[in-house]
Design a protein that fits this description.
This protein has 204 residues and is an alpha/beta fold. Helices cover 20% and strands 20% of the residues. It has one domain: 3-Layer(aba) Sandwich (Lysozyme-like). It is globular, with a radius of gyration of 16 Å. It starts with 16 loop residues before the first strand and ends in a 14-residue tail after the last helix.
Length: 204
């Protein structure tokens, strides 16, 4: 059975961040995390896409995957990933609802084998954000709005210098979020320069 989430409608005056937890997200703690290496700066946002089963939305199966409560026999696809232990810091549903599974002060297990701008092991120095969707397909306006708000809050709290997709930190192995993601829209929303983004990103 899936653990209950803490639904945060933070009252006025609540800090945006408390020990790496964002006050305006639903908190559902994942056991799949670890400490960041000592002295590591959290300087990268990695954007992903995920849906379980692939292409099906609103199933709550992503939440179950990240909390090790997925019923592997409930769907043929789940059997193919049986035993997988992963997490992201955040998950943004199609309606814009925001979930958090791991403190941003900790290392979530989202990027896997990865390398970006001269640094390996991107989990060590990144925050992972999953968008409910299918790689290569489009995302909802509500998701971009939540992503922009979350991104702005992360920029205030952490020394974020770069934003990239899973496809950019694990090229050839991953293709998400894919051509349907509007990189330039995110760049404008966050007020960042093109140098903060991958050289090759799809247009908005």
């Amino acid at each position: 059975m899936q653990a209950a989430a803490t639904d945060h409608t933070a009252p006025a005056g609540t800090p945006l961040w408390q020990d790496g937890w964002y006050s305006f997200a639903r908190h559902l703690a994942s056991p799949n995390f670890g400490a960041r290496p000592a002295g590591t700066l959290t300087e990268l946002l990695v954007i992903h896409s995920i849906s379980l089963p692939p292409g099906q939305y609103g199933t709550n199966q992503v939440q179950r995957l990240f909390t090790n409560t997925l019923d592997w026999d409930a769907h043929d696809y789940f059997r193919s990933i049986r035993g997988l232990k992963v997490s992201s810091h955040f998950f943004i549903a199609r309606d814009g609802q925001l979930w958090q599974f791991v403190s941003c002060d900790d290392r979530a297990w989202h990027a896997g084998e990865s390398f970006y701008r001269g640094k390996p092991n991107c989990n060590d120095h990144s925050v992972g954000i999953e968008l409910e969707g299918l790689e290569g397909q489009s995302f909802e306006d509500a998701q971009y709005e939540t992503l922009a708000s979350l991104g702005a809050a992360l920029l205030q709290a952490y020394p974020i210098a770069h934003v990239a997709g899973h496809e950019h930190v694990a090229p050839g192995r991953k293709q998400d979020p894919g051509i349907g993601f509007q990189w330039s829209a995110l760049q404008r929303a966050l007020g960042l320069s093109a140098v903060n983004f991958p050289t090759h990103t799809s247009p908005s």
